[in-house]
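WARN no homologs supplied; continuing
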Amino acid sequence: MVEAVFESLELKHKVIAELEEVLPAHAVFASNTSAIPIAKLAAGSKRPENFLGMHYFSPVPKMPLLEIIRHEGTSDEAASIAFDVGVKQGKTPIIVKDVPGFFVNRCLGPYMDEAVALLQSGSGVDDINKAMKAFGMPVGPMSLVDEVGIEVAASVGKNLQEDLGIRVGAANSAMLDEAVSMNMLGRKTGKGMYDYTQGKGPKPVNPEMIELIAKYSTGSVAVAAEEIQKRMAGRFVNEAAYCLQDEIIASPTVGDIGSVFGIGFSPFRGGPFRHVDTVGAQAFVDEMNAYADEYGDHFRPAQILVDYAKSGKKFHN
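OK structure emitted
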């Protein structure tokens, strides 16, 4: 059984209780939550050993990844059953630890935080989009936030704040809150980073958003496309490394699969860990430290990256 009701702990607990009254004792119960810790949801279950998360990605028919999230009490049997179900659905499942953002959204948080920081320091909406598409992302971050919903992006950032601190704290998130208050949520409301009210064809940047960005501006320095790519990809890769370091994922392979199949992280680069192997851990660490010295500690590389740089090791043989 997979539930996908509105992201409310109270509502989900009600659904769990009602369904467990009619489900057999051996049934595995999964939540498709993208924000609520699985352990909190399992607290409303009579059979927490049979409870876990199955996080699908939107649009579900097209996106191949499935994150299976175990809380501390999830049985091996329940996790195995969920994995088999995912495979039968045509998905590529990965097992992920129960932490805010799980794996993919946890890495996406710093990536999007850097996008907003770049906007506020002088880079243009189109410039950021074009740079990241040239890097290999299937969708530019400005288009992505419009598709997902600016209110969703703002909520994900807040959920990650307690766990990640400065790693999602480079930008002034009040800008997104104000965009939400102005009902500029993205495509669903006709306006977000782009203006969707102008009919067919390429969408122009929303002039109201340009005014809002100016209000929260910290400067007027538009950086080159290559720096946009290195800063944004660097923060995604760094968070993926933290996830490996903190055992949120089991291996670099899991991280690469999750990143490529979950958000389309530059597939020809092979994922964040393969990317580090390609550029070299030492070169990556040196670059991140240089950005940290210039822009702040949100760029400081994870210890696992520093260790790999010192030893000359690679994540993949």
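The mean pLDDT is 96.
OK
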